[in-house]
Write a structure and sequence with these properties.
By secondary structure, the protein is an alpha/beta fold. Among the domains are: 185 residues, Rossmann fold (3-Layer(aba) Sandwich), CATH 3.40.50.450; 72 residues, Orthogonal Bundle (Arc Repressor Mutant, subunit A). It contains 16 helices and twelve strands. A nine-stranded mixed beta sheet has the order 1-2-6-5-4-3-7-8-9, with helices on both faces. Strands 10-12-11 form a three-stranded antiparallel beta sheet. Helix 7 links the parallel strand 4 and strand 5.
């Protein structure tokens, strides 16, 4: 376990967020082997390229290094109400260490709660941007139910499933985290500026990139590994075969997290990616209780759905076998009842009188018949007698 970072290391990590791209495993290896301060020193000496950096890449890194200004970034973060958390801090979520050399250098965070504690009981809900009405409804409902059960909903702040997930959690008065592919002071997409503002007030807005930095297609994909690592499991609500949310699910699987999928119409192209996940290793889920049963603590099991308790449900096995031996219509003799119930005639007679006292059967001469009440009870849920 890493000790608390000193001021020089924190400064170096702040500086490096301007130089290295998120998920850069070569850069992560440099940081692991030399320490962030050592990497900064080498980047300030253009004549000493770091191992594995080609001439073109080294020139690009040095150009970025020359423009980096940690003091400016920390001041911009403070103006936006954000803080910079690094490995070794009390707030650092140690499950991010599972990413190895692709671990973030640090995280810029807006919001009052502590990320480490929130991440311990969190679930990612992700999916298509251009989702259907069904997908948006399911995403919001699942997230609201998770929030009501005390779980933190994590998503990417995007249009579609992500936005519905955040709104569902917020609407339930619950906790949600938006992991952005840009600076936390620059809400993206712009149409979600108000939503991301609400998340920062009620929850947390998190990102690897320094203030003011913009998103790119590759940064969206790399952001997904943080969502996967941060949470106990990932639920994909809707996704086409090439959806970026599938990258989150695959990252979760590589990290040993739970991967879940919500089925959709087989005629919908936006369900094909989810259905492919379900054909592989994902677990099918349809409500929050099923999600919590997977990711929660031992004993957080979903109750098995049951119908209403019927009078015949209270019968012992012997009496129920005799009751089941009577047809829905008509009178039948004891010998036939005993044969169908695989018992003796004496036992059948004793059971029949017990059943009569409970209102299940009535006697007609030498035969027996189900009462109208017993027939209705059987149709209501016990199956045909």
């Amino acid at each position: 376990m890493e000790g608390p970072p000193g001021p020089e290391e924190r400064w170096a990590r702040t500086w490096l967020t301007r130089v290295l791209e998120p998920g850069d495993e070569t850069g992560g290896r440099w940081v692991r082997e030399m320490g962030p301060v050592g990497v900064v020193r080498r980047l300030r000496d253009p004549d000493r390229p770091l191992p594995g950096a080609g001439a073109r890449r080294w020139a690009g890194l040095c150009a970025r290094a020359a423009a980096a200004d940690p003091a400016r970034d920390l001041a911009a973060a403070a103006d936006a109400g954000a803080r910079f958390v690094v490995p070794g801090d009390a707030e650092w979520p140690t499950q991010l260490d599972d990413l190895g050399d692709a671990r973030p250098l640090g995280l810029w965070i807006r919001g009052r709660p502590g990320l480490r504690m929130w991440a311990l009981r969190s679930v990612a809900v992700v999916g298509a941007r251009a989702c259907t009405e069904y997908g948006a409804h399911v995403s919001a409902a699942l997230s609201a139910e998770l929030a009501e059960r005390g779980w933190v909903v994590v998503s990417g702040g995007a249009y579609g499933i992500d936005g519905a997930a955040h709104r569902g959690a917020l609407g339930a008065g619950g906790a949600t985290v938006a992991v952005l592919a840009c600076g936390v002071d620059r809400p993206y997409p712009r149409g979600h500026a108000r939503l991301i503002g609400r998340i920062a007030e009620q929850g947390l807005v998190v990102g690897e990139l320094p203030p003011g930095d913009h998103p790119t297609p590759s940064r969206f994909v790399l952001r997904n590994r943080v969502i996967a690592a941060l949470t106990r499991g990932t639920v994909v609500v809707e996704a086409a075969r090439r959806s970026g949310s599938l990258a989150t699910a695959r990252a979760a699987r590589r990290l040993g997290r739970f991967v879940m999928g919500v089925p959709g119409p087989v005629t919908s192209g936006l369900s094909t990616g989810v259905h492919q996940l379900l054909r592989e290793e994902a677990v099918l889920v349809t409500d929050a209780a099923e999600i919590v049963e997977l990711v929660g603590a031992m004993g957080e099991l979903k109750e098995v759905p049951q119908g209403p308790l019927l009078p015949r449900d209270l019968l012992g096995p012997g009496a129920r076998r005799v009751l089941d031996a009577l047809p829905a219509r008509g009178v039948v003799h004891v010998a036939e009842i005993a044969r169908e119930a695989a018992t003796t005639q004496d036992d059948a007679v004793a059971r029949l009188y017990e059943l009569r006292s409970l209102g299940h059967v009535e006697r007609h001469g030498d035969g027996w018949q189900l009462t109208r009440h017993a027939v209705i009870s059987a149709r209501a849920g016990a199956g045909p007698p």
